[in-house]
Design brief:
Low-confidence stretches: 87-119, 251-258
Largest sheet: none
Helix content: 55-70%
Oligomer: single chain
Shape: globular
Distance between the termini: 23 Å
Order of helices and strands: HHHHHHHHHHHH
Structural class: mainly alpha
Number of helices: 12
Amino acid sequence: MHGLSETALFNACRILFGQEARTCREFLETLQPNGVRAAFRNQAMVHHPDRYASSPAQIRNEQTARFRELRQAYDLILVFLEKRPRMRPSPSRQYDRPQAPAHDTWRPVRKKAPVQPGARQPTVPSIFLEFGMFAYYRGRITYPQLIEALVWQRRQRPTLGAIACEWGWLSETRIRRIIDHRGQAVRFGRKAVELGYLNARQVEALLQHQRSLQLRIGRYFVEQGLMTEEETENLARELRKHNEWARRWTPERVDRRD
């Protein structure tokens, strides 16, 4: 993909935008420099090592490693954007959208939302989506607002290392080794498995617990006055129908998890 590894780009997007960003080729094609820079600035405000100068060594090391990953991901995505040719929207392009049988009457709703003059309204892709990405594709929020919401959501949850330490699965020494590890894996959970400190089931349990502590992204949109509670509920119902349809016609979909 323009001389860059697609896997590396997907990993970089997940680091910069969070796991909720369901990365695919369409996601890469919709990336814009302003949105990427805004994502990096917001992440840097949270994870820059200078903000943790008075914190315990474990926290400082975690944030230093996190910021290093963010910077590498940011630089890689910028290189991709520089090499990516300018694309014109093509009405015939369907992004490999599966065709449903004639008797299936439901389709993802694609109402036109007000947009700025000259802006291109994104099309809802026929893949499984999380709430934030669905709200963006439906035109309810802008790309920078989506990024800000994802950063806000990530702030609310503890790190995997903190949870594993609390459960007695990892010591502070091993957490530091995981953070400093430079193997094939990028994310903390996969690094821990690569080093043999955790197994896949333990990482999945940590991720599930981490997600259970994470606030719903719709709450951010309500607090910021971008949607009412009723609007988020209606959008959630639309999303459930969309994902039911996507699951039915794209059985090969595999969730990407840490």
